[in-house]
């Protein structure tokens, strides 16, 4: 009987997989809290084994070498730098997370999908309209070389809500500041999107000061700018974005083709409102919306 069992089990041993199924290689751009929280969210949904490396400490060639050696079933790229260094890999599924405007980087590669660090424009405009019911015209400054496709989506969202979008392409920080000076009385608000030509450490203080002097409310993408004087921000909930990416990873590891797992904007967001700025601007805000916001008093 033992001999019979031995000859039954022996072939099965040779058929068994030699490596763990569902291994994920996490490549994280920087060891910062938002990325750590996003990874926590992903791991709460996707229980596959994972190993993490930092892309900031390795060149692209070294990253690719690690991938070839480790042979993961899926790569989770967290942050812009991580995605930039793995986007050339074509034979391993890649899910990105916490990346601004990823579509400009990946050219619709069949093996790449993920969750952008953008909150859908229609969601941002809808929130702004609820806070400012009088909103009719909104200005947006952008670098055409970086954000033309995203601004196209903003035009569509604004049209659906009956908001007139006055988008102006600028090519330098100096142009951006000059453009704001001519807005007073012509627009109801300014929307600052994640565009480093417009919003950077050199320009942000002067931008916010100029808009406040001209009584122009500012919608932005980070609460740190609300703390500096912007009226409100609607930014990505990193934990929820991580869960989205984890759901995508589960589908791919279960056998679904990457090209059938659609790229998504972050669905979770955090609203922050500066009540001090609202008072200085002479704006009355919708109290019901404020109940769900983080308030700066």
Can you put this structure into words, describing what you see?
- The protein is an alpha/beta fold and 297 residues long.
- The chain folds into two domains: 19-117 and 238-268, Rossmann fold, CATH 3.40.50.2300; 121-235 and 270-296, 3-Layer(aba) Sandwich (Rossmann fold), CATH 3.40.50.
- Helices cover 43% and strands 22% of the residues.
- It is built from 13 helices and 13 strands.
- The chain has helices at 2-15, 33-45, 60-70, 80-86, 103-106, 121-131, 144-161, 173-181, 204-213, 223-226, 238-253, 275-281, 287-290; strands spanning 24-28, 50-54, 74-78, 94-99, 112-119, 137-142, 164-169, 189-191, 218-220, 232-236, 264-266, 269-274, 294-296.
- The strands form two sheets. The chain has a seven-stranded mixed β-sheet with strand order 7-6-8-9-10-12-13. It has a six-stranded parallel β-sheet with strand order 2-1-3-4-5-11, sandwiched between helices.
- The longest helix has 18 residues, at 144-161.
- The chain is elongated, with a radius of gyration of 23 Å.
- The termini are far apart.
- The model is unreliable at 1-21 (pLDDT under 50).
